[in-house]
Amino acid sequence: MNSDHRSARLDLNRSARIDLPEAVYCEGKTVQQCVDIVGGFLDGGSDAVIATRATPDQQEALAELQPAAHSYGTFTWRHRPATGRTAVITCAGTSDLPVADECRLTLEAMGHQAQPVTDVGVAGLHRLVDAGPELEQGEVIVAFAGMEGALPTVLAGLVAAPIIAVPTSVGYGTSFEGISALLTMLSSCAPGVSVVGIDNGYGAACAAHRVLRAVQ
Q1: Of 32, 81, 153, 156, which has the fewest CB atoms closer than 10 Å, so is most exposed?
Q2: Strand (E) or helix (H) holding 207
Q3: CB 144, CB 120: distance < 8 Å
Q4: How many Cα atoms are found within 13 Å in the side-chain-facing hemisphere of 188?
Q5: CA distance 99 to 5
Q6: How far apart are alpha carbons 19 and 15 in whole angstroms?
Q7: What are phi and psi of 139, to 5 degrees?
Q8: Distance of CA 22 to CAs 25, 29, 40, 42, 47, Å?
Q9: Mean pLDDT of all residues in 98-114
Q10: What is the C-alpha separation between 47 and 74, in angstroms, rounded?
Q11: Residues 112-167: tens digit of each pLDDT
Q12: What is the pTM of this model?
């Protein structure tokens, strides 16, 4: 049953239904709304609590609620016990890190180890090849790339793990704020690449969690 909490109806039973905690999407909310909603989850439940896309003012207020793990605009509280499962979080460039860290913290909140492998874009292919041993540690790989978005296709030709591709809104004019990367990933010639929406690090983490739950 959903419960009313000021301007929001908190889904406190989502984890019991689908094993995924609801995330508080802070963009477009007031500082007080973010504090009230996150506080409602912290007070009313026992599972991990996640907030994404927080502005600097929202971040300052959220940091005062309870000790949290945070990076860029993502905050997580009350992490689940470790599952022993590992996702590799790989991104083409440093500019992809805000979205990649949204994914990493979400996975860590759900008890998984999230191993970052950063700055391995195809413009310097040797860096990706050199990272081979790190990539092999992942039972699933989440790949973030802007520009032309080629990284997931290259990865899918090198490793056997499931690939979840995340286009980011990084790049020059003809990248069209991630649309070029999205179309590249959807058109990948490498079989079996799954794609989520532009800048959707949280959604990618949820997809990776579903994969990792199936690992025996």
Answers
A1: 81
A2: helix 201-213
A3: no
A4: 24
A5: 28
A6: 4
A7: -80, -15
A8: 9, 16, 12, 12, 10
A9: 96
A10: 17
A11: 999 999 999 998 899 999 999 999 999 999 999 999 999 999 999 999 999 999 99
A12: 0.91
